[in-house]
Amino acid sequence: MARIKICVFLLPVLFAMSLYAQSKEKIPAGMVLVEGGTFLMGSPDSEAGRFDWEGPQHQVTVGGFYMGRYEVTQKEWREVMESNPGYSKGDNLPVAQVSWYDAVEYCNRRSVQEGLIPVYMHDGENVAWNRGADGYRLPTEAEWEYACRAGTTTRYYNGDREETLVRIGNIADTTGNEKYPFLTGIDGQDGYTEIAPVGTFSPNEWGLYDMIGNVQEWCWDQWGNYRQETQADPEGPPWGSPSWDSRVNRGGSWGSPAGHARSASRNGSTPSARSPGLGFRLARSRFIRIEAAYYSPGMVRVEGGTFLMGSPDSEAGRAVGRFDIEARHRATVSGFYMGRYEVTQKEWIAVMGNNPSRFKGDNQPVERVSWYDAVEYCNRRSVQEGLTPVYTIDKGSSDPNNRNTDDKAKWLVTWNRNAGGYRLPTEAEWEYACRAGTATRYYNGDREETLIQVGNVADATWETKNPGGTRVEGRDGFPETAPVGMFSLNAWGLYDMIGNVLEWCWDWYGNYNGTQTDPAGPSSGSGRVRRGGSWYGNARSLRSANRGIESPYIQADYLGFRLARSANNE
Q1: 305-309 and 120-123 as β-strands: parallel, antiparallel, unpaired?
Q2: CA 246 to CA 51: how far, in whole Å?
Q3: For the whole prediction, is pTM greater than 0.85?
Q4: What would the pLDDT profile of 318-373 be if each residue is shown by its tens digit?
Q5: Cβ neighbours of residue 111 under 8 Å, at least 6 residues apart?
Q6: Checking DSSP bridges between strand 31-34 and strand 65-68, what pairing results, if any?
Q7: How far apart are alpha carbons 199 and 89 in whole angstroms?
Q8: Can you tell me the distance from the alpha carbon of 388 to that of 418, in angstroms, rounded to the nearest whole number?
Q9: Res. 127: pLDDT tops 90
Q10: How many angstroms separate the CA atoms of 376 and 378, rounded?
Q11: CB–CB of 365/343 below 8 Å?
Q12: Are 202 and 214 spatial neighbours (Cβ–Cβ below 8 Å)?
């Protein structure tokens, strides 16, 4: 398999915010449901056999997911890949001598075979994780250790004593020493000089076999040092940060000493590496739909509330100048519905019959659409779905509130607030939904280097086609627009609120006007508000409070939109 450079899109996913409904949860065949929870990841300084890279011990919260009961077997591999790279052959032996690239390819192919959405996307030299896909994948390192420990805090999931390991795992012992005397093994005999059939040894408390020994198991994460702070669903450092060019593997193998079989023990190998002691097990994301959070396909219910709109004076990158365009103020927003994704090219074509986008792809956001195009789309789609159109569009009358001297269209567009059809969000609705309860620079915190985890922004990948400029650290894998839903969603289940394309809002652009309820902007202006940054956006432009203005007739490859609907017609 050709060498592939990797980009990762990481950060917490709230699995309850999903596209998939389950009236009764059905656990996939061969897998175990691992309920979410919080645990101490890593090892304490006092643990025997510990290495420095297992610390600092830190608190991690993991969302629920499914984990393979066994390591992937040679029979399972052969049925999908039509080959058997195994060192020792046997249907029920775990497949080994597979690289990280081989493992992600297997995940995708098996997903397709079973009618699931493949998790991994290959784009030239990049591999990306689609967090909205329901197919097979590798566990994250945090998921792996959480599942291995199964609620324990000891060296091994069955306690602290090395001599008991022959009961739960196939590692180096006196049996193995008979064939490989150079291996440092424990006292006792597990009966296997090399690899053993899966499920031979006792499972842990959560019903998972061979989490210790047999083969080391690939994880998704790039190798890197732990961070001290509390985390939720961590997925390792972003690609391009200082680290080895390696992927994590866990659990020890048939040739490992006892110290390498501890629950906290970690190892890294280049993703192209293959060895007789390297295999993997499968994971799948757990998708549960909460009915109260949804209205129509592709939309999320945003409950109303009051928040601080704009930015504090101390915020790094805040707009300054003659006018304080981000002046912080209290705003109250009524409940509404917001598109989970930006409107895609496929959706646009189905309604409008054309595709104005520069960067073509069914699941990429439509771009090169003006504000006028967006409101017309809203009306046409509303009619298609039997909804009352929101906008009255008079193309023959010049809007007296439009002060833009270059705008030759100046359509007169009015908003029927009682209509139940599709519309653009107001600027206040947009920022409220983007923040999702946060007050930080970005909805995932204050650190610029984490932006590639939540959005398609201008970074090192962008610079491959657009040299120069001050951009975001790291690589997100996309020099231009990305398919919607590729990056981690915010806490309210919305994707791409940072980056990809700037999104049109209803409002005329103007200074804020103090505390308001359901503000919809000034009564007139020369341009409409656009929000969220884009594929070429720098760190400053990606802040939740950042605002921009665009002439309503402008069509650009960085301009798109997402839908909203009012909730007052329920």
Answers
A1: unpaired
A2: 18
A3: no
A4: 876 555 799 999 999 999 999 999 999 999 999 999 999 999 999 999 999 999 99
A5: 117, 118, 119, 133, 135, 136
A6: antiparallel
A7: 16
A8: 9
A9: no
A10: 5
A11: yes
A12: no
